[in-house]
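#onboarding

Welcome to the new folks! Below is a worked example of what a typical request in this channel looks like: someone posts a single protein sequence, and someone else replies with the predicted structure as tokens. Don't worry about understanding the tokens yet, we'll cover that in week two.

Example request:
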Amino acid sequence: MNMPLQNSATWSDTLKIRKAHLNALLKTIDARLGKTTQIQTLTINAIKAEMANIERQLNHRK
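Example response:
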């Protein structure tokens, strides 16, 4: 007998939560004072690219 999931979020909710998580990570990385390393710059760029991708998916769902 298969029971339905009781606490299933919609795909849009999942994307919004992921975007909020990435935004918090970005703030954590940007909060550091001083010179940023190349790894930090690449990480920041990757997070921003992922956030843009999520935003496109959310806009597509509207």
